[in-house]
């Protein structure tokens, strides 16, 4: 009888051992599956930034987007001088604008037939080479303009608020390949903010 009890006990132990080994084997398979899934994960696709380039406008009708031109017209300002305007007169009687001197484009917007007495503004754009860039910056600093950075972080700004009596508002944005400016008369903070918006619109409209 004692021998039979020992045999049954051994059989029970053998059965438990088989179950334990079977469980370990199943756990091992699960771990292998998890590892396989981890290896097969695909890294997310990285989108590289687009490198925009300056495209010079052909005349003053193409210097700003149509929406900006509509806003100027709504305020009684129309194109009165510059390439593409009805007039052949220069913007400045005394000579070319700084942007025109380096091959750029300047455009005068004012009330029709009443340039002297009403508000007016000049927007300009020019391509800038590495050779010209230092001279442009020196000219900004010589007249004491404030220095800042463009909202996209890729250019510098040179500016003044001016006032609504004597000093015009002026905003320049200088990028590695281009120069944009807006000159508002009369000046002051509101006029300056409008100039910033116009410069940003020109930049967006002339880059591809």
Structure description:
This protein is α+β, with helices and mostly antiparallel strands and 208 residues long. It folds into 2 domains: 1-47; 60-205, Protein Transport Mog1p, Chain A (3-Layer(aba) Sandwich). Helices cover 38% and strands 20% of the residues. The protein contains 5 helices and 7 strands; from the N terminus they run H-H-E-H-E-E-H-E-E-E-E-H. The protein has helices at residues 2-39, 66-74, 98-101, 133-142, 189-205, and strands at 78-81, 105-110, 120-127, 146-149, 156-160, 169-174, 178-185. A 7-stranded antiparallel sheet has the order 1-2-3-7-6-5-4. Strand 5 (156-160) and strand 6 form a beta hairpin. The longest helix is centred in the N-terminal third of the chain and has 38 residues, at 2-39. The radius of gyration is 36 Å and the shape is globular. It starts with a helix and ends with a helix. The relative contact order is 0.12.
- For the CA atoms, what is the radius of gyration? 36 Å
Instruction: Estimate the global geometry from the Cα principal axes.
Output: globular
Per the CATH scheme, the topology name of the largest domain is Protein Transport Mog1p, Chain A
Kindly name the structural category.
alpha+beta
Structural domain tally: 2
Strand order of the largest sheet: 1-2-3-7-6-5-4
H/I helix tally: 5
Mean of pLDDT: 82
**Helix-strand pattern, N to C?**
HHEHEEHEEEEH
Helix content: 25-40%
Number of strands: 7
CATH architecture level-2 label of the largest domain: 3-Layer(aba) Sandwich
Distance between the termini: 97 Å
Q: Could you tell me the strand content as a percent range?
A: 15-25%
Largest sheet: 7 strands, antiparallel
Main CATH class of the largest domain: Alpha Beta
Low-confidence stretches: 1-39
């Amino acid at each position: 009888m004692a021998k039979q009890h020992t045999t049954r006990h051994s059989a029970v132990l053998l059965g438990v051992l088989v179950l334990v080994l079977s469980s370990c084997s199943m756990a091992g398979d699960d771990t292998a599956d998890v590892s396989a899934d981890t290896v097969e994960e695909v890294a997310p696709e990285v989108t590289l930034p687009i490198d925009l380039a300056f495209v010079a406008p052909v005349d003053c009708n193409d210097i700003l987007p149509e929406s900006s031109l509509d806003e100027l017209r709504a305020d009684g300002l129309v194109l009165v001088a510059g390439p593409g305007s009805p007039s052949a007169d220069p913007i400045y009687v005394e000579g070319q604008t700084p942007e025109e001197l380096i091959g750029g484009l300047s455009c005068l917007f004012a009330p029709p037939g009443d340039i002297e007495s009403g508000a007016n503004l000049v927007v300009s754009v020019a391509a800038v080479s590495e050779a010209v860039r230092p001279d442009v910056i020196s000219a900004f600093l010589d007249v004491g303009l404030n220095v800042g950075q463009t909202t996209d972080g890729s250019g510098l700004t040179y500016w003044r608020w001016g006032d609504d009596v004597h000093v015009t508002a002026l905003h320049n944005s200088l990028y590695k390949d281009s120069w944009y400016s807006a000159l508002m008369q009369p000046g002051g903070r509101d006029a300056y903010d409008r100039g910033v918006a116009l410069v940003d619109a020109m930049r967006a409209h002339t880059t591809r």
